[in-house]
Design brief:
about 180 residues, mainly beta, six-stranded antiparallel β-sheet, five-stranded antiparallel β-sheet, 1 helix, 15 strands, elongated
């Protein structure tokens, strides 16, 4: 089994999240693992943002089977207690549920890992075209106590586990020392 990572390359739809300077959030703040030097944040109930993803770095012909797709986020809460952050795999025809992470108060950015989804919807296995359509949506499910306290996300990645396309078997039939191999 092999894997590759897909990273955010844009924002689509509703965007309630802000960047660390207070302007509208964008993908450049969560596409590298730099923790506190770049992040997006939200503090309002149901504040959402949806990221588009860069196309797979592995060509379609190199993939035999897509085994699972997993979303990982790094985040923390600056106030007291934990806050729930919903992370969904969405996109054209993609509906496979969501993960809710209890984001803890922390000074670092721990990784929250979602379920390894084998299907993009129902019992439909992942296809290369669906990977190209994949988006990641974040929704804050609990408002923070004050505008000073926020849920911050510093990194988002999608891990794709797959089986590599095999080469055709080569059959060797040689006679060595009088025996056919």
């Amino acid at each position: 089994m092999a894997s590759f990572t897909m990273l955010p390359d844009g924002v689509t739809g509703t965007n309630n999240w802000l960047n660390f300077g207070g302007a509208t959030a964008d993908h450049t703040l969560v596409d590298d693992d730099t923790d506190s030097s770049s992040y997006i944040y939200e503090n309002t109930l149901n504040g959402e943002i949806t990221f588009t993803l860069a196309n797979p770095s592995v060509s379609e012909g190199d993939i035999d089977t897509i085994n699972s797709v997993t979303v990982k986020v790094k985040g923390h809460h600056t106030g007291l207690g934990n806050k729930n952050l919903q992370v969904e795999q969405t996109g054209s025809g993609i509906s496979n549920g969501s993960d809710t992470h209890s984001i803890a108060r922390n000074t670092s950015y721990p990784t929250y890992t979602g379920a390894a989804e084998q299907y993009y919807t129902g019992e439909s296995v992942w296809t290369y075209a669906k990977l190209e359509d994949l988006q990641v949506k974040l929704t804050l499910l609990q408002a923070t106590a004050s505008f000073r306290f926020t849920v911050r996300v510093s990194y988002i990645e999608v891990l794709v586990d797959y089986d590599e396309a095999g080469e055709e078997a080569v059959v060797y039939n040689a006679t060595i020392f009088g025996t056919n191999f």
